[in-house]
Design brief:
144 residues, Immunoglobulin-like, 2 domains, three-stranded antiparallel sheet, 2 helices, 40% strand
């Protein structure tokens, strides 16, 4: 008796699989299949603000440590404001202090593809390393 039920069960499962394949082959149109590689129209027109931050140097001269770097607008819209965080570390890679740099203000925007240099200094003793990261950036262009 159990062999019959097993046979019927396998037959039902095979029928369901074949029915699904036939349905997909004949009733789904090509337009229903989405190509993940092709961007949609909404993606192409959407503005995207993004930046790249690069530290050029971190040098100590007497009692002052100076960090130099630049930011680059890698997005598709002008940036109205960019705030960076400078991180001052000791020889054990422990964070000693942080600072803020307003690399782009409201008066002169940073257009796509442009670079702008920035610098920050500290008088802390024991600074052995510097680092910088983008903290906040935004565009004045209306993002829809």
């Amino acid at each position: 008796m159990s062999d019959r039920l097993l046979g019927w069960g396998i037959g039902v499962i095979v029928s369901i699989i074949l029915g699904t394949l036939v349905y997909r082959a004949y009733f789904l149109e090509q337009n229903d299949i989405i190509d993940p590689k092709r961007p949609t129209i909404a993606d192409e027109s959407k503005p995207s603000p993004s930046i790249k931050t690069k530290m050029i140097s971190c040098k100590r001269t007497k009692t002052i440590t100076r960090l130099l770097g630049y930011i680059e607008n890698t997005g598709s819209v002008p940036l109205a404001s960019v705030t960076l965080q400078t991180i001052w570390k000791d020889e054990y890679n422990e964070g000693m202090d942080t600072g803020l740099v307003y690399a782009v203000g409201d008066t002169v925007p940073l257009y796509p593809g442009e670079r702008r240099e920035f610098e920050d200094t500290t008088g802390l003793r024991g600074v052995a390393m510097c680092n910088v990261r983008a903290l906040d950036w935004w565009s004045s262009q209306d993002e829809r």
